[in-house]
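Consortium newsletter contribution from the modelling node. Members have asked for a concrete example of what our holo predictions look like. Here is one, prepared for the pyridoxal-5'-phosphate complex that several groups have been discussing at recent meetings.
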Amino acid sequence: MDTQSLLRSLPKVDKLLERADIAALAETHPRSVVTDAIRETVDALRADILSGVLHEVGEDAVVSAVITLVERKGVRSLRRVINATGIVVHTNLGRSRLAPSAVDAVAEVAGSYSTLEYDVESGERGSRHSHVEELICKLTGAEAAMAVNNNASAVLIGLAGLARGKEAIVSRGQLVEIGGSFRVPDVMRESGATMVEVGTTNKTHLSDYEKALTPATGLLLKVHTSNYRVVGFTEEVTLGDLVSLGGQHGIPVMEDQGSGVLVDLRKWGLPYEPTVGESIAAGADAVTCSGDKLLGGPQAGIIAGKWHVIAALKKHPLARAIRLDKMTLAALEATLRLYLDEERAKREIPTLAMLSASKEAMAGRAVRLADEIARACGDAYLVGTAEDVSRAGGGSLPMADIPTVVVAVMPQRMSVTELEARLRCAEPPIVARINADRVLLDPRTLTLGEEAEIVAALAALAGS
Ligand SMILES: *Cc1c(COP(=O)(O)O)cnc(C)c1O
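And here is the predicted structure:
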């Protein structure tokens, strides 16, 4: 058929809308979505005809393309995925999963009115800070605390509140970039503080800070280097020494602690990380951290510190711009409550439970999962288990190799990259790692229910 006849044979939008199968589609999906999908499909076919790649148009094929497109448009963009990577605080996959009690708390306040800024006893206006302040103080020993949108905004308001128009001294070894373009010098500039760098990349001494002090100094800042380590010939000034120096000159000290560790992780077999409580005990005026990294809660930033510092930050004009909504506050409060009993926190906060699970436990689950895949999928894959390492992720514990056992799936009828891509496009999407000719599935970041979904998805792909 020549191009003009092909173009004339394209079905008309109105005519397609009259078909029973398309009408049925418009019963369950918004009509505008269906008409958009028809137009997009017909436009794409017209382009294919004009570029000479399409030589035949069948109405049924057009309709099935429309149905596929409408169904794709109906899938929520932000939705659940299965994380089989073994990276626990996976930034691109939403960092921490919430504990069941935190999920319940979110659902409760989301669908109802709440005590967000209401004091039931007095019947008067309350403070949204009240829901988490006492808990943070109890868990860290701080005099006062507040929570904001994320740790980046916690650092921003801390710098703006303590050092705007003044100089803030920071070690060159701590001028780091944390994933997703949080750069200490950039945040410093936005806060209105003037950054004064001291020391070198690998070594900074207390005397470096001392020599940089001027009448304009407003803050001594310490930044946890999180995703980055300087090893070898290195020296960093302790927070305690900075606090002494600040004390002698009446200059406050702030620490950006990063991950939000509330418990000494060594008791669960993980590497040592300074806790927020240790920084408070060392005398920091303000300590900031994330809510959704090692703390295991929702995206949030916590600022704990001296009473007068926090009181001023609560009144800072930025506070309103970076305040938390009720759903996040509910999740944060419920997560912090679990920490009142550390063993319960370890059991119920998924991030802590996953990080502290033993290699033996992972081996048992990997063997079972491998067996189930082999049983369900016949000879479509060669399935085995292998020793590997899980990661904390999110820039936390970068040097920690967490021993694990993974399921290794070697596809026999497609390439490994194709299997990985098809798993990603499954519903729900399954995100896995590739190593050489195998797809690796780490049970550490999976629930048992998700393991069953992976078996079903692999079985479906084996049959197709
Ligand atoms: C992660 C991190 C940040 C940024 O925290 P967000 O909660 O992602 O905004 C800032 N500083 C340090 C040291 C970090 O580790």
